[in-house]
Amino acid sequence: MSTEKQRHDQQPLKPTHDVDPLPDLSGDITDEAVQASGFNLNMVYHVLTVVTMGFFIYATYKGYKLGIFTSQQKLDVFIQTLGLWGPLFFVGVQIIQVVVPIIPGGVTSIAGVVIFGAVKGTIYNIIGCGIGSFINYFLARHYGRAFVGKLIGIKKLNRYEKWVKKEVHFDKAFAVAMVVPISPDDILCLFAGLLRMRLSWFTMCILLLKPWSILAYTLGGEWIVRRFLLGW
Fold first, then answer.
1. Given this model, what pLDDT does residue 28 score?
2. What is the C-alpha to C-alpha distance for residues 27 and 144, in angstroms, rounded to an integer?
3. Cα angle at 155 between 188 and 132, to 5 degrees?
4. What pTM was estimated for this model as a whole?
5. Three-state DSSP class for 91?
6. 119: part of which helix (H) or strand (E)?
7. 8 A C-beta contact, residue 69 and residue 63
8. How many CB atoms sit inside 10 A of residue 34's CB?
């Protein structure tokens, strides 16, 4: 009985929708596996970490100096001076935080609706998070398990693999997770790529279901920030 259970646990994950044979997901993840894929993840990760953290430290300092965190009027004037570059830069930040989890997505999503307003901020959040989700899907699908292990950590990868092995209908569970605000949707998008989920199903979930979780999370968080932190 124990031998049969051990053999079952060692079986690789199965794709939810067969497209190509899924490579074996068992075994150790090594740096050489990532380097062999032609993707220098360590360099990209460190560069994005330094640039993103440096920008947020600088932006926070300048924000307090300009008083935009204490006055809605000053914030509105500041946003107008940014023109089109403000929304474009924010969408770029959202894409980066989805692909490289340096800053919690909830922080930037709530910041978006506080800075740009409920309607525009939510639209920018949906665009940025949606593009980032597609990038995660295709990166995991192309570079495989070694890439995902380097991105989220080997321990987290193994933990989610155990859950996915037990989840018979991953595609349905994925759809449900997209509408739950606190679900680890970015990680699940990586696993959708690993399992070669059908692109049409993935697209439907991201375009039609994910916006509802973003809407609930960001608008609820914005109300809390304005009411209890900013006092606007």
1. 46
2. 13
3. 30
4. 0.72
5. helix
6. helix 118-143
7. yes
8. 22
